Amino acid sequence: MMKTSILIVEDDKAIQNLLSATLDANSYQCFTAETGEKAIFLATAKNPDILILDLGLPDMDGVELITRIRSWSSCPILVVSARSEDRDKITALDAGADDYLTKPFSMEELLARLRVAQRKIAELRKNSAAESSVFQNGGLTIDYAAGTVAVDGKLVHLTPMEYKLICLLTKNVGRVLTHSYILKELWGAAYESDVASLRVFMATLRKKIEKKGGPKYIETHVGVGYKMVRMEG
């Protein structure tokens, strides 16, 4: 079985060595880069499955690197940064990062985030023709071709906007989508600040797909956005 390859972009040698040693011990194949330019070279040459990125690089800001890599690659990008402000997280996620982990962090949490990224990779490969496939996540089923949504085998009636919202979340399962990203995708750039309306639509959608005592498919990241959670099994 081929190892999952990870490109670690970190200019702090001690942290880079710690990450490499931990990931090697957990059967990942690692490449390392200390600068943005080297990271771009290795990303194109090695085509890693996952990218772990520190935002504070000596030659460019990590957000610029995310934007440049996103212009040609869809590999999961996990940001690990000492920047803990919501605006920093939102900027990185809007640029195309899939997840954000604030330093200091535990290696157990990092490994858990990587497992989420691996599941996303598997899902993308499985559903390369997503528009004509069926999305299954626990008891939630979406038939994109038929335009139907079901929970535990029972059809759920959604409004057109609720359906667009759930499709956006499911096609980015495991990834935190910021408020502004969702609003821009659903209504356009002019509505990027209308978070109140988004909360209303999200609340009604949740009432329809999340039953009392049942699984919670949508996770709220306060001040940042929402994520469709990948259910186990």
TrEMBL record:
Where's DNA bound on this chain? Answer: 132-230
Q: List the keywords (alphabetical).
A: Cytoplasm, DNA-binding, Phosphoprotein, Transcription, Transcription regulation, Two-component regulatory system
Give every Response regulatory domain span: 5-118
Gene Ontology, cellular component aspect: cytosol; protein-DNA complex
- This protein's record includes keyword Transmembrane: no
- GO BP, one example? positive regulation of DNA-templated transcription
Q: Does the keyword Chaperone apply?
A: no
List the subcellular locations: Cytoplasm
Q: What is its main location?
A: cytoplasm
As one GO molecular function, the record gives: phosphorelay response regulator activity
User: Pfam family of this protein, just one?
Assistant: Response_reg
What residue stretches are annotated with the OmpR/PhoB-type domain? 132-230
> Which residues in this protein are found as 4-aspartylphosphate?
54
Q: Tell me the function of this protein.
A: May play the central regulatory role in sporulation. It may be an element of the effector pathway responsible for the activation of sporulation genes in response to nutritional stress. Spo0A may act in concert with spo0H (a sigma factor) to control the expression of some genes that are critical to the sporulation process.
Q: What's the protein here called? A: Stage 0 sporulation protein A homolog
Instruction: Tell me which species this is from.
Output: Zhenpiania hominis
